[in-house]
Amino acid sequence: MTLTDFHSAFFAHELTKRCPSDSIEKFAGALVDAQVTLHPHQVEAALFAFRSPLSRGAMLADEVGLGKTIEAGLVISQKWAERRRKLLVITPSNLRKQWHQELQEKFFLPCRILEAKSYKAAIKSGTPSPFEPTDAVVICSYQFAKAKAADLTAVPWDLVVIDEAHRLRNVYKPSNVIANVLKNALVAAPKLLLTATPLQNSLLELFGLVSFIDEHAFGDLKSFREQFANLSEEEVFEALKARLRPICHRSLRRQVVEYVPFTKRHAMVEEFTPADNEDLLYNEVSAYLRRDNLQALPASQRSLMTMVLRKLLASSTFAIAGALDTLIVRLKGKVAKKPPAKSLEEEMEEEYESLDETAEEWGDEEDDDAPLSESDRAAIDQEVRDLEGFRDLALNITQNAKGLALLTALGKAFEEADRLGAARKAIIFTESRKTQDYLLRLLGNSPYRDGIVLFNGSNADNGSKAIYTEWVKKHAGTEKISGSRTADMRSALVEYFRDEGSIMIATEAGAEGINLQFCSLVVNYDLPWNPQRIEQRIGRCHRYGQKFDVVVVNFINLNNEADRRVFELLDEKFKLFEGVFGASDEVLGAIESGVDFEKRIAGIYQGCRTAQEISDSFVHLQRELTSQINDAMTKTRRQLLENFDDEVHEKLRISKNESDGYQTRYERMLMRMTRHELNGHAKFDADDTAFNLCANPFPDLQMPMGRYELPRRSGESHLYRIGHSLAQRLLHQAREKVLPPAEIVFDYAGALPRVAAFQPYRNLSGELLVQRLSIESMDQGEDHMMVAAITDEGTILAADFACKFFLMAASEVIDRPEFTPDARLVAEIERQQSDIRRTISERNGKLFEEEASKLDGWADDLKVGLEREIRDLDRQLKEAKRAASAALTLEEKLAGQRQVRTLESLRNAKRKSLFAAQDEIEARRDSLIRKVEGKLEQTVSQRTIFSARWRLI
């Protein structure tokens, strides 16, 4: 296909134009760039988030498993493409790496995780504001964002995405410190909240989340209670639903199964009975951890470290032995006045790898060391002797009953995988690095010895290094090598596990954010107490793209009542291990956070000594959970937040058709523009979906040679996309060309696809004018390509028809320096401009009306609150008069009259203040509306791309 500079310029302007906020075309570039299969409900959710430029944000509340991260990634990607680079993601600490990987691998967005260490390093290097983003999306945890609230306030964010946003739903309570601090810090920022459970136990939670996004969506808490307390009245219910509709979007799994197939989960339980020496060790260390005064554990970190030691104790004798040794060395150093090189938290992290994230959420800080008294020294000496005894006992245990149970369980699980038709691949999760080493030795002497790969936070073992070295050789010169050794090591280990391995032994921290759809067997060697962590573990395999049912293996210690009850609670109440979707939204959302639940479990282990005490405590905990999971509230949430299936299905069908059409068109334009601009530097496939770059046209760009594909179909090719540095340079080159008037001879036979409507115009000629109209309004811009064409006989061609000239090749281009466009072409361009501006004005008018209506509702809410106070005083006054009339003695009558006069005075004062307050509310409303009106003004600019004569042969 022979293209011209005119084709290339037209394509470049089409590919880079800014689109209206309510058009799926807006996302076409991001859809082409994303290395992920986007489903229509995700595109629809992202479009909802962009719907009105006047809004302060949105809440995406899709059910678990529908890809809210992808929806937010699409929104972030679009902001990035618009050069709006002040982007922040706030997420639970254990999801930071997952966000980092998803945004980098699926959307090619540069990211950086900001935490205490990197923040201090940035300050030390001379960066005054580490939160001020320059070249990357910033990711941080809730706790860190709260600690650095002043920094957040100082940045004029383009978008703040908040994951697991149900943590903020009690922001209306002053006791929820993190939520209130973040709300105040981010009040001016546009926000995107992600949560599967926006409403759990009370309508006030919904008020809290909505007010976090936009404090003018509802009035105050009192007026919200007053208006929406009785949802049984249909009018009240519909009013609330209407107020929520512009701000909250929710899709259900049953509504999208046509596009997103789900497999099931199957649970397997392997029971084991520890040997006598294992039980002795468990009981001795448990008793030690219950002592009132422990020198080895700082008082402020005792609850956290006790939990860690209990988890290591349950993991393996090897794990607890290492931890006990750490405590012994530190206590001896304390007596010798030798300050440790590392904090206890840092040292224990070598045993329990996710400790840094757990500690951040538990929020403890280590105490300064106080001077030791003689009694302290004696206590330490005794504690050291006790710890050495526990450690020696642990070291003498060379085989663990749970380890032997693992070998049995793997045999059963692999048989089940065979039955299901899945690959014999298993991921084994442990919370301890020492246990990981033990399992490697254990499996290395078993029939499962071949194809074992370790996965943890450092991957410093020889096996991982060898896998990494081979991977680097294999992918040398390709985009697969990112330059970050940590990221590349993770990619190498996952690829090895997928292609050659059979068992991956992973720690908690090491496995965050990896996707293992090719593996369908999850083994919880150590079971976390945090149900959200368990769901994330299983979700590594049980996710979109998994073709087989997933088998989940757990272990139960028959001698440990607490372990049994924890498993029962996670299985029966949280429904983590069975079914199609795993943990239900209702239950996972019922707990304020997994960490709080983890603390409750830790408290039971620490405080209960007998089986009966343990049983009673778990019964009480389960009863609390049951009361939190309120059926009536679940029904209310469904009615309030969910749309009818038929309505959703129709919307998704349209969304899919539109997004697929735009994506195909954009890919085709991008590849055709690239073919022309590379001008012999590459060899293209016949279907224009791939090319081999033979020479670098831009010496200043580091451009690897080889095969580029769009979309990428082979693992060794480079993914070509609009955001690629080569594409960006070519787009700029094509856009900036000066195109003098010419005659373009279009070849009807060269149209791909054939445009049958051009058949009557063969052997005709005429004129063509292409302009770009740019309009700035409502703090955003949009561009429109205006194409006017006329035949020499004077027939004006429809604008959408005229655009299709560029689907045809050109057999010839002839310079026509004397050419001047016909006045009728100019008039047609002016008509198109007028239509575009009118359409934008009508759309902006609707958006303004919605914003004004919202502000009217806010003002009315506040007035309702004021009027309610007067009604309350009227009621009190009526009661006081009745009491005064019924009084028997003079003294009682006089006292009653005094109360009546006091209430009348108060009511009259309230009435006067009501009018003043209403005037103030109206003034505030008018001020807000004037600000909105200012954003509606349009700034218009026009640029002629080219004018030409055309001839069709």
UniProtKB/TrEMBL annotation:
Residues 863-890 form a coiled coil. The keyword Cytoplasm does not apply. One of its GO terms (molecular function) is hydrolase activity. Gene3D superfamilies: P-loop containing nucleotide triphosphate hydrolases (3.40.50.300), Tandem AAA-ATPase domain (3.40.50.10810). Residues 339-376 are annotated as: Disordered. Residues 49-216 form the Helicase ATP-binding domain. SUPFAM superfamilies: P-loop containing nucleoside triphosphate hydrolases (SSF52540). CDD domains: DEXDc_RapA (cd18011), SF2_C_SNF (cd18793). It holds the Pfam family SNF2-rel_dom. Residues 346-371 have a biased composition (Acidic residues). Residues 406-588 form the Helicase C-terminal domain. Keywords: ATP-binding, Coiled coil, Helicase, Hydrolase, Nucleotide-binding. This is Type III restriction-modification system methylation subunit. The lineage of its organism: Bacteria, Pseudomonadati, Planctomycetota, Planctomycetia, Gemmatales.
